[in-house]
Amino acid sequence: MKNIFLMIIAVITITSANGQVLSNKQKKYTEADSLRGSLRPERAYDVLKYHLQVQIDPEERYIFGFNTITFKAETELPTLQIDLFENMKIDSIMHGTEKLGYKRNFNAVFVEFEESITAETTDSIQVFYSGNPIVAKNAPWDGGFVFKKDEEGNPWIAVTVQGTGASLWYPNKDHQSDEPEEALIEIAVPNGLTNVSNGRLLGKTDLHNGYTRWSYKVSNPINNYDIVFNIANYVHFKDTYKDLDLDYYVLPYNLEKAKNQFAEVIPMMECFYEKFGEYPFKEDGYKLVETPYLGMEHQSAVAYGNYYKMGYLGRDLSGTGIGLKWDFIIIHESGHEWFGNSITAKDIADMWIHEGFTTYSEAVYIECRWGEEDALEYLKGLRKNIGNQASIIGDYGVNSEGSSDMYPKGANLLNTLRSIYNDDELWWKTLKNYTLTFRHKIIDTKMVEDFFNAPVETDLQPIFDQYLRYSAIPVLEFKETGKRISYRWKTDVADFNMPVDVFINKKEIRLTPSNTWKELSKKVEDLDDIKVNDKEFYIQTEFLK
Questions:
Q1: Which helix (H) or strand (E) segment is 375 a member of?
Q2: Contact, 489 vs 476, CB < 8 A?
Q3: Local structure of residue 306 (DSSP, 8 states)
Q4: Which H helix or E strand runs over 329?
Q5: Distance CA 214, CA 202 (A)
Q6: Residues β-bridged to residue 129
Q7: DSSP letters along 247-258, please?
Q8: What is the pLDDT of residues 196-229, one digit of tens each?
Q9: Which of 156, 320, 428, 510 is the most buried (most CB within 10 A)?
Q10: What phi and psi, each to the nearest 5 degrees, are found at residue 433?
Q11: Are 26 and 400 in contact (CB under 8 A)?
């Protein structure tokens, strides 16, 4: 979710008059970008499991431990790439009883086997490491550890690394295309503190050295950046929704506030179960954990730091007032359990698959609670945060995210698709089928486009192209031609045929404009008699006189 914060404060002032602006594409990428973002031959393996065991020293801000990476080779592997930030020391890499050699190149570590791992072989390496991880300057805007004290002076420690990379603090295959099928996360913290990580708590062990190890088992595939710890003097309370365990971890002096605020989880689950299907990580349970930063979608351990306020830190991102009816962090970050955690983009260039759908889930929740009109007004209000200065999709293979417009523009694209469908029963059925079909899958934009294109006669591909691959949105032009009114689309994409609803003399009709001028069949006295349904369609309108 991190770019949403930047989106809020973005200054949207440099868009040219005709909407044509430069994309976000960089002219040059570094070797480090390619090492992180590309699927090189040394990454031709499938991660099956992580066993991460780490001890964290709050005073020295130091960690040490190991990660056992179990994998299946997809091709013959003489060398295997893992990732760990340069400032972290690799103490040794073990392959059974054999100590392996390795070479570093930026944050990439190339592990060298004496004998190649043959294709289709399941094997493992154990990476022992230590160091002082990067401390975030302003989490979650930037990645790193967060070392704070609560109001009672107790340590309050967490980590957030989306975008920056999980290899900031533990060795892994740091690419979104691959997730471990399961994970064992064991974090040792000073006695008297609690650690909350992803998955189910297996138990805790007194190490008799002033530390207690907390062990958690994740039974589902999990993104690298979702694997976390949360260390504090937590108190725990719980609830259930159907057969889903709801566990809450908060600071003791916020317990009563949390019981009141977290009551919103139940109506949220009711809505999301109806619209998206059941919670995708039921085996691991759902946790909401108070954190010393605003929030993140950490799978089955959602980070919450909204200070028990409605909206986004007490503000409404839409400017409509509707965003103050609910707690933004609870809804947005939990929405990511379906969109981003369950359904994951293969390359971060396609992160709109996470953020566009999750921002749309905010409107879905509003519609469940307060009706469609409020949801439409909210989505329209979010448009003030859209810059239309760069494409939503980034560059592939170089660890490049697209524009932060992926949040509100992605959501408004989905709402526009719903309007094109013009059949709510079909829309909701398709959306739920999408979450079920790609449950626990890693996908790309083409797969999303094909899925939503299939149920309707209108070819959605040019529409996806315009909204995702160009900065400008479609412009619907009207002009007077003698005594008639003509209309057309002005777009970057050729052969753009998107239906749109307009009001003519207050009566709604559906037009099917193309890139060539068409005449209105209905007589209109004046251009002022035409109003576009801009709540349901995210477009620009120009009246040429």
A1: helix 372-382
A2: yes
A3: S
A4: helix 328-335
A5: 8
A6: 65, 90
A7: EEEE-GGGHHHH
A8: 999 999 999 999 999 999 999 999 999 999 999 9
A9: 156
A10: -60, -35
A11: yes
